[in-house]
Amino acid sequence: MEYKTDIEIAQACQMKKITEIAQIAGVPEEYLEQYGNYKAKVDYRMLKDLADRPDGKLILVTAITPTPAGEGKTTTSVGLADGLRKIGKNSIAALREPSLGPVFGIKGGAAGGGYAQVVPMEDINLHFTGDFHAIGAANNLLAAMLDNHIQQGNSLGIDPKQVTWKRAVDMNDRQLRHIVSGLGGRVQGVPREDGFEITVASEIMAVLCLASDIPDLKARLGRIIVGYKYDGSPVTAHELKAEGAMAALLKDALKPNLVQTLEGTPVFVHGGPFANIAHGCNSVTATRMALKLGDYVVTEAGFAADLGSEKFFDIKCRMAGLTPAACVVVATVRALKYHGGVPKTELNTENLEALEKGLPNLLQHVGNVKNVFGLPCVVAINAFPTDTKAELDLVEAKCKELGVNVALSEVWARGGEGGMALAEEVVRLCEEENHFGFSYTLDCSIEQKIHDIAHNVYHAKHCLLLPNAKKKAKMLTDLGFDRLPICMAKTQYSFSDDPTLLGAPQDFTLNVTDLKVCTGAGFIVAYTGDIMTMPGLPKVPAAEKIDVDENGVISGLF
Prior knowledge:
Elements: H1 6-12, H2 18-25, E1 32-34, E2 40-42, H3 46-49, E3 57-63, H4 73-86, E4 91-95, H5 100-104, E5 112-113, E6 116-119, H6 121-125, H7 131-151, E7 158-163, E8 167-169, E9 179-181, E10 192-194, E11 196-198, H8 203-210, H9 214-223, E12 225-229, E13 234-236, H10 243-250, E14 257-261, E15 266-269, H11 284-293, E16 296-300, H12 305-320, E17 326-331, H13 333-339, H14 352-372, E18 377-382, H15 389-401, E19 405-409, H16 411-414, H17 420-430, H18 446-456, E20 462-465, H19 467-478, E21 486-489, E22 509-518, E23 523-528, E24 547-548, E25 554-555
Parallel strand pairs: 3-16, 3-17, 4-15, 4-16, 8-11, 17-18, 18-19, 20-22, 21-23
Antiparallel strand pairs: 1-2, 2-14, 5-6, 6-14, 7-12, 9-10, 12-13, 14-15, 22-23, 24-25
Helix pairs in contact: 4-17, 7-8, 7-10, 9-10, 13-14, 14-15
């Protein structure tokens, strides 16, 4: 059989007009704002008309710890939504928007893969409907107003050495991590240390994903802390009179985007914070819309279950009052062998010993979902042709010891038909008794919440707040922010803060280096290890392979 790339499969798809997808989803015409023929925004005010309609079942798709072998979380999410439709269920997916940084960096496209994709794939992976540009503009407007205030007399008494607000650009650009701005003389600004974050790490992204409407958006934007005054008190965007203009830039970005899968299943794609440095979920508004329109809603959280799903549960669900019905943990035999010590070049060879060594990573994620968060769970094995029966049998046997079933997912090769077995198991799980809960309570100290995540979710032996983090914890407690949830900024490649510790490491210490309060988003970010909020490009960026021909047809996205 001739192999086709993701983009070739997507470009061969005969998409339905977005008006037809809206009819399938049940979106009234008056709330649909078309962006061409195949994508549209849906006005969030539709939720008021649907307020009395019962919610559907919310299904979270998460995964094992990422490896270079890939796991296929988005592919599985898309295929599961299609599979649910194949077995006669009214399903809708609610996913995140891809960031340009990884698209041009190491990851390539992020709209699923094979025959389980969201389309128009090129639009979604590139500028889409402009949401990220609006977020970057709002972020940088606030930065400009902040520095202008300092330049124009600084009546608020802002300490330039305690400015915490960074500029943003949606690109992997390590050159901008640490810079000095305002050089060139008195009229060019006040010189100070500065820096950029990637747009998905901006607090504006988190605010957009957690806001419910424009009044809530403006209130959250106004609460953002941009730095501290000489007397130690925080400076907010409201004091700079910035929230109105920022909200004006974001008013359309607040509306979820409606697109479709290759098989015509409606999909909301909206928001896209990274889960290693932010809360890693699509917008609350998009999820709520999907729940009002669909009987089964498939959503995903970034990276592995220790990051994305922990924040989905402890931050998004807690803030929005959402209760998931079931959870899918995606794994591949190849990735589990990698966690067992097999180099990437040898992953296609059967190796039961390495698989057994790597399985604790999967089992720890599954155990967390079941025992810490109290949700019914299924393991979806994303199938590869090189998987052997003995390897698949071993994964199934180990999962059954935890009381968890395994479903083989063949959505990459077969689309929704390859997700029907997984869909049947998910529907069964959604009817099981639900004991959903959180990994920590809000009424304990900042330090205790961090310790609870480290011990309950990461299984760390010790959790150490370094002196700077301890100082910040006291300061934030004194300012009255100690009852906020915690957003852990941690490497995605390990349960620990050391990306080289694969599998399910034991006896490690989690080192917390710094804390930052995000009062607009409503959480405290705890930085661990040497985590950064601005990635860099790899030696051979994916951008080198991306091109466009004279007819405007894009190639090289994968």
